[in-house]
């Protein structure tokens, strides 16, 4: 069973997931969302990089917990460019000094819940590293509103190449891929609320329903109806 709540860290989400529950196709898939996560599983800490395709966790037993950072914010907190972790799950000990990771892991394991321990770790890291570049929020907002990449760069007062470089470091991929992922998320939210697929395609910014179908299969690996379990 999956549950989440808003974090005390601005824009982040704290979640936990226990094996079991829905057996619908796609129910266990982790879908691209432009975010990175700090994870806990079986007493160890991991980082999930930004995904460009659906990730299937496999049959690992036991609960998971995580903090999902808002798009573009995790590299500032973690000290690692997002593109270095694209489509990967890595142990935190591979990114930070082993002694520090052992100390932080012990703190998370001693917390009332792993999710709470992760949130405290994220808050402390954010306080020490400072706020992410505010321009990144503007990039996400513009692209999520359907603004073309070239127009977004112009409105932000930066060149297309600079936008691409900054996007790679912050989001793990270029602005065109980020726009595609955000459009996919908009469509998924509409479809989950019962909006017909043709209307979902139009409202989310796709050329037509066939375009929506291609993008969903490309990002999720399954058709939209199968993803929703309908």
What would you note in describing this structure?
This protein has 2 domains: 2-129, no CATH class; 134-228, Arc Repressor Mutant, subunit A. Helix content is 47%, strand content 13%. With 230 residues, the protein is α+β, with helices and mostly antiparallel strands. The model has no long low-confidence stretch (mean pLDDT 93). Strands 1-2-5-3-4-6 form a 6-stranded antiparallel beta sheet.
Topology overview:
Elements: E1 2-6, E2 13-17, E3 36-41, E4 44-48, E5 64-69, H1 74-78, E6 89-91, H2 98-110, H3 114-129, H4 134-144, H5 149-156, H6 160-171, H7 175-192, H8 197-204, H9 209-220, H10 224-228
Antiparallel strand pairs: 1-2, 2-5, 3-4, 3-5, 4-6
Helix pairs in contact: 2-3, 4-5, 4-7, 7-8, 7-9
Gross morphology:
globular
What is the overall pLDDT average? Answer: 93
> Which structural class best describes the helix and strand composition?
alpha+beta
Helix percent reads 40-55%
Give the radius of gyration.
18 Å
Q: Between the first and last Cα atoms, what is the distance in angstroms?
A: 20 Å
Count of DSSP E strands? 6
Any low-confidence stretches, pLDDT <50, length ≥5?
Answer: none
Adjacency order of strands in the biggest sheet? 1-2-5-3-4-6
How many structural domains in the coordinates? 2
Keywords: DNA-binding, Transcription, Transcription regulation
Protein name: AraC family transcriptional regulator
Pfam family, one: DUF6597
Domain HTH araC/xylS-type: 133-230
């Amino acid at each position: 069973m999956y549950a989440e709540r808003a974090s005390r860290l601005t824009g982040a989400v704290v979640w936990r997931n226990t094996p079991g529950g829905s057996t619908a196709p796609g129910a266990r898939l982790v879908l691209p969302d432009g975010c990175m996560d700090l994870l806990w599983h079986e007493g160890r800490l991991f980082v999930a990089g930004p995904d460009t395709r659906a990730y299937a966790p496999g049959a690992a037993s036991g609960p998971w917990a995580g903090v999902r950072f808002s798009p573009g914010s995790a590299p500032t907190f973690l000290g690692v460019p997002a593109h270095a972790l694209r489509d990967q799950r890595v142990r935190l000990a591979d990114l930070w000094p082993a002694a520090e990771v052992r100390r932080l892991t012990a703190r998370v394991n001693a917390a009332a819940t792993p999710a709470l321990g992760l949130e405290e770790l994220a808050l402390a890291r954010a306080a020490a590293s400072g706020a992410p570049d505010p321009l990144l929020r503007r990039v996400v907002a513009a692209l999520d509103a359907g603004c073309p990449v070239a127009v977004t760069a112009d409105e932000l007062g930066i060149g297309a190449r600079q936008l691409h470089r900054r996007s790679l470091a912050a989001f793990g991929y270029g602005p065109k891929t980020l726009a595609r992922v955000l459009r996919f998320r908009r469509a998924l939210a509409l479809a989950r609320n019962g909006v017909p697929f043709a209307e979902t395609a139009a409202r989310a910014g796709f050329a037509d329903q066939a375009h929506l179908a291609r993008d969903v299969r490309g990002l999720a690996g399954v058709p939209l109806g199968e993803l929703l379990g309908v």
